Amino acid sequence: MATESDESVLGGSTSAERRRAVLEKLNPLEMPIRFQLGLLGIVGFVLLPTQLYPDQMGRPTNLLFLMMFAMSWDVVSGYTGQLSFGHAFFFAVGGYTSAILDLQHGITPVIGIPVGMLLAGVGGLLIGIPALRLRGPYLSLVTLIIPIILAKLFTLFNNSLPVLAPEGLGGRNGPGLPTQLFGIDGSGAVLELAEGYSGIQQTALANYYLALGLMLLILVVLLAVTRSSAGDVFTAIREDEDAVAAAGLDASRFKLFAFVLSAVVGGLAGAVWVHTVQTPSPLGILGQDDIQTSIDVIIMSILGGTGTIVGPIIGAVVFALSAVVVGGLSDVIIPVADVAVADLRPLPLLAAAMATLVFAPGGVLRANIRLGRRILASARGDEYEGEPIGGGDSALGQIIEKYRAELREIIDERR
Amino acid sequence: MTSAANVIVTAISISSLYAIIAIGFTLIFGVGGVLNFSHGALITIGAEASYLLSNPTNLGLHPALGLVGGMVTAAVVGAILYLGVVQFVEDEPVTLLILTFIIGFFIQHACRVFITGTSDFSVDQVTPGETTIAGVTLFDIDIFIFVLAAVLIAATGVFVSRTKTGKAILAVSMSEKGAAVVGIDARKINLITWLLASAFAGIAGVLLTMKQTGAWSMGTQPLILAFSIVILGGLGSIKGSVVGAYIIGFTETITTSYISSSLQGFTALVLLIVLLLVKPEGLFGREAA
Prior knowledge:
The structure holds 2 protein chains of 2 kinds. By secondary structure, chain A is mainly alpha-helical. Chain A has 2 domains: 1-9 and 19-51, no CATH class; 52-414, Orthogonal Bundle (ABC transporter involved in vitamin B12 uptake, BtuC). Chain A is 67% helix and 2% strand. In chain A, strand 3 (333-334) and strand 4 form a beta hairpin. The longest helix of chain A is centred in the middle third of the chain and has 31 residues, at 196-226. Chain A is globular and about 65 Å long. Mean pLDDT of chain A is 82; it is low at 1-10 and 388-392. Chain B has a single domain (4-278), classed as ABC transporter involved in vitamin B12 uptake, BtuC, CATH 1.10.3470. Chain B is mostly helical. The model of chain B has no long low-confidence stretch (mean pLDDT 85). The chains are: A mainly alpha, B mainly alpha.
């Protein structure tokens, strides 16, 4: 690959050389095209609010949170291959903790959010430890039902949960609207902004840029972790756990680390979510049937490409754009069924996810990088040989391999 | 006030429904190694088809025809799923897992968009009315469900252990290569299994609607319970599924009737997690199907 050779420049001999190499690497003009496009995307997100009215800001802000959730899924499921079907559990733990602390204990979100994040991390430990013992389908089941159990707990402790939540968890409606981080003057928010319309404007902007900042922070942290040697171990676990053990590394410790990291990230995003643009309730956080959000996160990651961290961001954009595009077609009626295209949601998106799974298991990101390389190569007049196409080499392909081996073990055991 | 006898009858009829759902799920897993997460959607399909056929506001046919129609529709959709999608990605379990999940959502949302919307719907019972046996009043529909499920379970047992096709199903689930060596067409066996499992899911969907009400997302809860039951009983074991179904069905009914109705769908899942941590291979994990 052409990009690979650029990266070895980092190891200069003197510190001056090294610094120059780093600076060169950070120079946008010298970057590979895919990084330039990424930077352009970030610039686009920074400039986006200039094109929208305050009341249109909700969706893009929500989108940023979806990105964080999808990234947090990717770091554990995309990298280590431990498929989680109930990641919204962590978002809910973060969100509910912070909301309840605020509403029923009078603790400001500024403290509540870090506490929610920590508690989600504890949740990650609690699920991560048994996850080390459970294989493929069993882990999927456990992660699938944990958010459902959580939602039942919300209903069970509807009116009161001694000490922790004296006024209860609020059942299906949620515990109520917690203090917002930003609001107009006199709204009681943590940070009160201007009055009237300009206050509404500022609130929308503040929420958006906070989410954007948080998303970029999470992106940088997760990229740093997954591109470090720990990330290599994650990938190695996905590829061949025995090999990791044979190299003298404790695979379970890394898996646990991935789980907790993912949970902390998800908890943080979930906690900030309920203090900005989302109401804490089972439907709001966990989604339809208490599993929709978890599945949406998986769909986004698959659309963009699992095991990349950047892929889920792109997947989330595709996810949100498709909702906007399809939702905009309210005047287009499908002839025979007499249903407006807009009412079809989420069918087109689900169909797109199915098609991605079958035809481009590496995700949209990888497919486009490959396409881009081919175009560049043909522009140079070379023939692009490319990487082998097909499941085997992509992250999803490796997760599949791992899963298959575990299924085989389970089936063999029965005989 | 619910008497103990009534609780037991409800538990039996619900468990019987769970059992036929779980048998289908476990058969598909045993034969093709596929965890079919669209199984819940097939329950919805059965229910929606019977609604279209036998609800008075639609065709208004006899409920029995709705039952048959629900079964056939679900079986056809199941066969389409296998022939159109599953057989092409059969050896990629994760793709398949997520794919069947998404297909399940797709089908359920399609039912919502095109057929019933978000409101609940009902279907007339095949056997309306009540019967009093030894001083206990029972709904006829509960008796019907129990008898039908028992017949179906027994028939499945006989089919799998006595008939040639059934034995072939067992053979494929034990070793696909071995089955191929003796000339069994695994693809055909897979198709038969999908037909059978989907038909069962369809029947369960219709009966669930008759007993309670139907809704576009009605398949999700039974799907999760079926998955739990199958894991509880040991993946791929028919006997395990039946036993697991009764354990889960009874736990659920007894806790919801005697402790609190808000416990619905809770105790069974907690029980399952505990069991998974203690005995991950399931109750009948080491047995052949």
